[in-house]
Amino acid sequence: MRFIHASDLHIDSPLRGLDRYDGAPVERLRTATRSACERLVDRALAERVDFLLLAGDIYDRDWQDFHTGLFFRGQLVRLERAGIRCFIVQGNHDAQGVISRQLTLPSNVTVFSSRAAQTIRLEDLSVAIHGRSFPEREVNEDLVPSYPPPVPGFFNIGLLHTSLTGRAGHDTYAPTDLPTLVAKGYDYWALGHVHAREVLNERPRIVFCGNLQGRHAKETGAKGCELVTVDAGRIEAECIALDVVRWSQLSVPLDGVDRLESLNEAFARALEPVLTGTMDRLHAVRVTLTGSTELHRLEAAQPGTLAAAMHAAAQDIGAAEIWIEQVRLDLSTPLDRTQAAQRQDAVGELVRLVDTIAGDDTELLRRAQAELGDLLGAMPAEVTAGDVPRLDDPAELRSLLMDAEGTVLARLSASGEDA
């Protein structure tokens, strides 16, 4: 017996702000969730699985029109024609109280009730699938106690959308814990909601399969489904990558790199492990340039130089399709700060000021936190979308101060000061 466990397809998830990126492959990114869904069905057909399990959040929100639902229904029809059954629980994003438009689904599809947990017995396979959908987006109770007991002599599968005891970056829904799942007596728990793949337990096997397609720079690495084979009660599972766009965050060290021409080599070296075995997809990469380099002075004199150099370096990688989503700088200008602090000029004054502000628990540090917080609060939402500094973290604030110091020192150098 073979089945696929997938979750969190988030079909037609809105990718906001792409128009801010010049040259972004907007259409490829916006259709990525559909393409990954098609790959999922392709794989189910190729493997001739007995059934497909979908553990919630097929959709990202209520449909703007019927096109989203019709696309997914079309994929289910492909499964129906091949005799492959599909079992679905609805999660917080596609709960019955969220999705207002409805389509009749093909006969091979079972959507579990949101009123009570159900058991579907597949007599020909001696498999029992237990599940319960979300009635509304907010489900704060543990649903596991309401699930039926295992069917004796059957391979028992629990289909559940849950945050367990909590996962970073995910809201808490249908909370439960590992001992509760194990005690239920099922053989396999097919979990959804958490977008990073995580094998929580082997016997019984309890798995978050992760989402099918990364949607932004925080959802990095391979995304896909679990292909599960059960033979005489023995479980073999394989993680199958199905994403069509692979998101990565890449650190490129530039210590000792003093020539702009050398950036290509540094970028290619850092990128190599990301590309290995993954040439058949678009790579969306967020690059952070790190280290102490004289190129920081060049960037201060001509802002945007290093970002442009990274985009050019990506164009020169002919073996794969690469889009640089963003270039961040965590650079410093080579400087002996102890010696610089003794100087009686603008450089020395700046270094001493930064040391004073960054001192432990100083009033200046608290004032800097407040003023930066007011500045961020006054910025438009489109400017502060995504990652913003954690001003309540003194270590992060000190890092921002050191970065600002490096930028000012580089500008002083560019304007004629000997830094």
Automatic annotation (TrEMBL):
Q: Which GO terms describe its molecular function?
A: exonuclease activity
Q: Name one Pfam family in it.
A: Metallophos
What CDD domains does the record point to? MPP_Mre11_N
Presence of the UniProt keyword Hydrolase in the record: yes
* Keywords for the protein's UniProt record, in alphabetical order: Exonuclease, Hydrolase, Nuclease
- Domain (Calcineurin-like phosphoesterase): give its ranges: 1-196
The keyword Cell membrane appears for this protein: no
Its signal peptide is none
The name this protein carries in UniProt is Putative Metallophosphoesterase, possible DNA repair exonuclease SbcCD, subunit D
Q: Which organism is it from?
A: Nitrospira defluvii
